[in-house]
Amino acid sequence: MGINTRGGVVGSLLRWTDRHFFALVRPSASDPWIVRAVYGAGELWVVLLGMAAFTVLIAAACRPLRPLYWRLRDDWTLLSFGLYGATVTAVHWAFEDYPHPHKQLYIFVASLILVAGAWVYLRSAHLWQRSLALFAAITLSMSVAATGRAILYANPLLWPPAAPRSFTWQSEVLCTVFGWEWLVAVVMAPALLGLLPHPDKSFS
């Protein structure tokens, strides 16, 4: 996404998080495949949610940014909408190791669904409608990605003979499902905060 994750502030933050947090929970090579797959599908999205939470704390503590904080407190789906953009990256990453051009069709369809979901979100008046729009768009787009991976991986006419295949189409779909679960949890977590009572804006 144009961000240098090897250096600078972002790289330092990722290295610190990996060393002090994920090193404690990272599964070993002897753990079952499904454990390692679930962990691998969610590591980055947990970091993204943590960065979003840190941003909210900065907005709450910094007086010039306080109006932004209160705007988020009035509608937590705004933060969910910001995190929603990560689904575009997730769709592209789903086909990262796929060498054939047919994947572009599935990426295009999934991207159209995400655009439609964003449009419905912006046109919705109620918080529950906005949350439902994000959830439905993530689910449909990742379903397209899972279907595309299954079709392209299982069909010998579409998969180049020289390209290695170390798994099955079922495992490819399962990895996409794990990614969808993490995305839904991360993106919808702020929206669920809207169910909590709003505090009195007594301080400024």
Radius of gyration, taken over Cα atoms and rounded to an integer in Å? 19 Å
Separation of the first and last Cα atoms? 36 Å
Number of structural domains: 1
The overall pLDDT, averaged over residues, is 76
Tell me the total number of β-strands: 0
What is the helix tally? 8
Helix content: over 70%
Main sheet summary: none
Helix and strand content put the structural class at: mainly alpha
Shape: globular
- Beta-strand fraction estimate: under 5%
Low-confidence region ranges: none
**What is the H/E order?**
HHHHHHHH
Describe this structure in words.
The protein is mostly helical and 204 residues long. The chain has one domain. 72% of the residues lie in helices and 0% in strands. The two termini are 36 Å apart.
